[in-house]
Amino acid sequence: MAKARTPIPEDVAAAVKFAADRTCCICRERGRAVQIHHIDENPTNHAATNLAVLCLLCHNDTQVRGGFGRALRAPDVIIARDDWLETVARRRRLADEAAVQAGVVHAQGAFATAAASTDDDGKCAAPDPSTSTFDKLLAALPAMLRAARALAEEAWDTGVTFQMAEATWDVVSVVADMWVRLARRYPSDHFKGTDPRDFFDSHLRQRGEWHQFIAEPDGAGTGGTIVRIVAAAAMLEEAERMVEDTVVALWSYEDSEGLNRWREAWRTARR
């Protein structure tokens, strides 16, 4: 007899998804729809240690069908989940270290304040570079990008494809956080009614697939490990461009000189 399913408490579900960066711990494909999986198959055991974020495809691999063994067993999921949570935590530490190195220790506070800024009618307030919060937000972006890239340099210099690609994705995560903070200046339902992080990740995933496909004209898997680096580098360039385009769209039209200075600082940080 199947056990009665009970809903996962909202605070637990939110914490689990946040810790996993709303990304499947198995395939780690950004932008896929995800759900929370009960590792012990008990839908009433909502302990954080029993929960893992999986996409629909990977979740299907945890199920037993027709008497045959499942593709993903509990120990497999636990190992993948713990490793992915550490990866997400490392990337967040990178963002913090980048903020410290950039001299913007309070950047997250500036991000949060600027992101929450709204008009009296609840709509997104028009950004104004003269306001302290938005000014701090913009000033932090080039400095944080420069610091994040500097922290990744050691891995990039190893020549080891896996390390180089992982370091690049670490920087992508920092840039993604920048864009999400900027995106919250828009109305809450602006990006097709989806969470800005999901919208951003979905776009990056599609672009990543495009770069992988064209890098292997002889078929999938024929390009070798270098394709992983090529795709990651392309994603970083794409993410950096998205931040720049968004800042341009949000900037006050009355301060073109200030915008030009910011763009120069941003493009210098990308080099």
Explain what you see:
The longest helix has 28 residues. This protein is mainly alpha-helical. A two-stranded antiparallel ribbon has the order 1-2. The protein starts with 9 loop residues before the first helix and ends with a helix. The chain has 2 domains: 69 residues, no CATH class; 169 residues, no CATH class. It is built from 9 helices and 2 strands, in the order αββαααααααα. The chain is 59% helix and 4% strand. α3 packs across α5.
What integer is the average pLDDT? 80
Q: What spatial order of strands do you see in the largest sheet?
A: 1-2
Please bin the fraction of helical residues: 55-70%
The stretches of 5 or more residues where confidence is low (pLDDT under 50) are 105-130
Measured by DSSP, the beta-strand proportion falls in: under 5%
Q: How would you sum up the global shape?
A: globular
Q: Topology as H/E string? A: HEEHHHHHHHH
Whole-number count of domains: 2
Continuous helix count: 9
**End-to-end separation:** 61 Å
The secondary-structure class comes to mainly alpha
Largest sheet: 2 strands, antiparallel
- Number of E strands: 2
| Rg over C-alpha atoms, rounded to the nearest angstrom | 21 Å
